[in-house]
Amino acid sequence: MHLAILVTNTDNSPFADQHPKDGKKFTDLIQLSRPDWQLTVFEVHEGEFPTDIQRFDGALITGSPASTRSDLPWIPRLVDLIRFMDHAQVPLFGACFGHQAIALALGGEIDRNPDGWAHGLIDNQMAARPSWTADLPPQVALYGSHCEHVSQLPARAVETARSTGLNAGFHIGNHIWTSQHHPEMSQGFITALTEEMRDTLGPDLHAQALSSLQNTSDQKPFSDSLARFFEQAS
Question: Which of 49, 94, 131, 172 has the fewest Cβ atoms surrounding its Cβ within 10 A?
Fold first, then answer.
């Protein structure tokens, strides 16, 4: 299996330089369950796109501090690619920004979180159960950090998870699956990010996030489900 990783992360800060890049994080996430799979990274936020996405068995779209509603010049091209992949039924997974970009491309809407930032270890209540999620627990813990959410799903989307009263993931047929959260993040990274964002989060949310990080995410079960998603869709 050969997957494309479409990196949308625009963070060029010294903090980002001290940690693994998103291409590495998502490669590690996939190879946690399928160590023999091949991953090729495209920095789409820098204009680097696959010349033929159908050469791949599927693709993943990463998270980003950028908003899908911004006027960054590479976002319309990514939206067009998402629509092409949907039409061609090329398997596609999106996390955080990727989740929102897929929703936006296919007719959904994005808005600010009504309660501000969601950050830390976040419980996801499973809703619909597509076949590849059968082994996930009813409540899946994933690391998250976002201040926007999918406020309206695309017409063909089926909600797969909710968190903090909001949509946290959906699927379309058996070729698209998303999560509002970050299955690729390690506990070490989200802990460091929490400290980096201390001022942005404010004292109450910062303390709440640190408290949540006393537990770890369901990364391995989610990785297993993600691998099964690509296998059944290919």
Answer: 131
pLDDT digit string, tens, across residues 51-66: 999 999 999 999 999 9
Q: Which residues share a beta bridge with 227?
A: none
Report how far residue 11's alpha carbon sits from residue 15's, in angstroms, rounded to the nearest whole number.
9
Q: What is the pLDDT of residues 154-207, one digit of tens each?
A: 999 999 999 989 999 999 999 999 999 999 999 999 999 999 999 999 999 999
pLDDT, residue 234, reads 83
CA–CA distance, 94 with 50 (Å, rounded to integer):
16
- Give CA–CA dist 73/80, Å, rounded: 12
Which burial class, exposed, middle or buried, applies to 191 when counting CB atoms under 10 A from its CB (0-12, 13-18, 19+)?
Answer: middle
CA distance 187 to 120: 10
> Domains of the chain, with CATH numbers?
2-119+126-137+147-185+218-233 (3.40.50.880)
